[in-house]
Amino acid sequence: MIRSTLTAHLADIDRQELTLQINDRDIGLLASQHQRYYVMSGNRRVQMIAGLLTHRDDPASVSSTRALLRLWLMTFRDLQINGLARFPQCVQSRDLDADFILMMDAHRVLIWSHRDQGVYLLRGNRLYRQQPTYPPQQEALLSLGIPLDFYAFRPSEGDDLLIIDPSFIDLFDCADLESMFMDIRQVNVAMTELMRLASNYGYLSDKTWFSAQIQKLEPEPEALSADFRGRAAGRRTRGGGADQWFRMIRWSKVVPLIDGNVLVLPPELEQYRMRSEVQTYEELDLPKPPRFTTHSGRQGVYGPDKVDIIESDTRSRSRRSKDEIAETYGRKVTWLDRVKDWNFGGFRNRIAGANRRLMNLIPSSRGLSILAYFVILLIILVILVAIFVSMRGGSGDSDSNQSEMPKVSTVDTSDQPQIDFEIDVEVRASSLRIVAAPNSDVLVATVGRGEHVVQLTYPKDGWVMIRTADDRVGFVPESLLLSPEAGD
After folding, report:
1. Average pLDDT of 161-165?
2. pLDDT tens, 71-95?
3. What CATH number is given to the structural domain containing 457?
4. Within its chain, how far is the Cα of 281 from the centroid?
5. DSSP 121-161
6. Phi then psi for 48, rounded to 5 degrees?
7. Residue 344 sits in the same domain as residue 372
8. Residue 69's pLDDT band (boundaries 50, 70, 90)?
9. Which backbone phi and psi does 445 adopt, to 5 degrees?
10. Using DSSP, how many helices (H) and how many strands (E) does the chain show?
11. Residues 382, 302: one domain?
């Protein structure tokens, strides 16, 4: 089972000649309701879109298209019972044909599309362009979609598939497209916004497009396959198994859109498409792996012919030339190549990608994601403020401690008298204050009774200069130095 949302939008010009069979509903020219936009969600064993072009003024063409619509509806119901492995038998028994086909199950996505439509895949946070591959060489499918390109790839939960005119994709920058799709998370809403922007810039925005959003994949057990039920009932299966044609499918290559919106055709595609004989996969004379030579696309850097999704003076990514793309995908990229190509733009893109992931923490709810994003920013801000305050507090404490420490005065020796002698004197006063200069209030030290000091000068104006045991120099009154009764 595959749970997905299919969306189809028909341009006015296509709505006049195209009819779409979306699973069991139809829209377009011959549909009962002439709507141009349709969205379908649900669980199916197989999801399907078939597009049929009609010459509306030709009754035979109208009648033929109506008959094909009924056959495609029968095919859809058949595939829900027997699975996608039944598709070749449906094509052969009902002589099916179409101008566009999209089919998906839990294991594979198959697309037949005109070359003027590009197939794009948004997986993770990267946008890729799928490249055509060799059509399946199953006898019943040889005549199906001969003029159409064939695409095949394995789906993954969370994939967004978009099929649209490549010229519309060229209007926008790849980084902006990825950002919008990642932020909005709904292809139909994102496409509505892109068309509005293109219209505002004067570009033709009425384009036909198809999309599929894959929410959940539930691979079915082998016991439910039509081949297994046939063997259990004793019936022989055609071609050695109903799923034989699956093993003959070659998967599509991809090119990241950042490297250019290019179409790369496998070599000898036309001859391979027209083969008439059927062989097993091992017997097929397959050509060598495709060499990447571009078939179509735009060159040049981001310029004024683009539509700005995000107003910005600098572009986060630049387009490379087709030759560079071919060279890159023709050889293995080493770590040294990645180091050489590293630039600050890539670093900026990583930061922007991390920001986008934070904005989408809860994929099911954008509102909760934004709330969680701001809560995280608030927590980081609180932590930074706390660190800043603690650092400021530490520096303030050190300053206050320094301010509270007692200042030790020193004696300015420039004005001091010359030392006359050095005589050791025992202090007899109970407490003797030593000051910086005669009649000064600046305290140098205090000595007590019994301590020894060195007298350095003769008395002058009643004061003598002394030196303490810890080499502090100051003045004391002569009358107090030797008096046992004096002191303070």
Report:
1. 94
2. 999 999 999 998 898 899 999 999 9
3. 2.30.30.40
4. 38
5. EEETTEEEEE--BPPP--GGGTTTTTTSEEEEE---TT-EE
6. -150, 140
7. no
8. very high
9. -165, 170
10. 13, 21
11. no
Does 176 share its domain with 254? Answer: yes
Q: Which residue in the block uniquely carries the two structure tokens 């086909």?
A: 101
Sign of CA dihedral 335, 336, 342, 347: positive
Contact 102, 210 (CB under 8 A): yes
73 found inside a domain: yes
The tens digit of pLDDT for each residue in 288-343 reads 444 444 444 444 444 446 787 765 444 444 445 555 554 555 455 555 655 555 54
Closest CA to 287 of 308, 305, 266, 310: 266
Do 6 and 37 have their domain in common? Answer: yes
Measuring CA to CA, how many Å separate 473 from each of 406, 458, 466? 18, 15, 6
On the 0-12 / 13-18 / 19+ scale of CB atoms within 10 A, 80 is middle
- CA–chain centroid gap for 466, Å, is 81
- Which has the closest alpha carbon to 133: 239, 281, 286, 324? 286
DSSP codes, 45-90: SSEEEEEEE--TT-HHHHHHHHHHHHHHHHHHHHHHHH-GGGHHHH
- 290 and 436 inside one domain: no
Say whether pLDDT at 353 is over 50.
Answer: yes
Query: Which of 125, 194, 201 shows the shortest CA–CA distance to 159?
Result: 125
> Is 344 exposed, middle or buried, given 0-12, 13-18 or 19+ CB atoms closer than 10 A?
exposed
Range of the domain at 442: 423-481
User: Is position 34 within any domain?
Assistant: yes
282 and 328 share one domain: yes
Is residue 184 located within the same domain as residue 275? yes
> How many domains, in total, are found in the chain?
3
Distance CA 49, CA 79 (A): 13
- The whole-angstrom separation of Cα 320 and Cα 313 is 19
CA distance 269 to 96: 23
Q: Which residue from 243, 247, 240 is spatially nearest to 224, judged by alpha carbons?
A: 243
How do beta strands 463-467 and 452-455 pair?
antiparallel
Contact criterion met (CB below 8 Å) for 246 and 226:
no
Q: Helices 174-184 and 187-200 meet at what angle, rounded to 10?
A: 140
Two tokens, residue 114 = 């005109």
Whether residue 340 is found in the same domain as residue 451: no
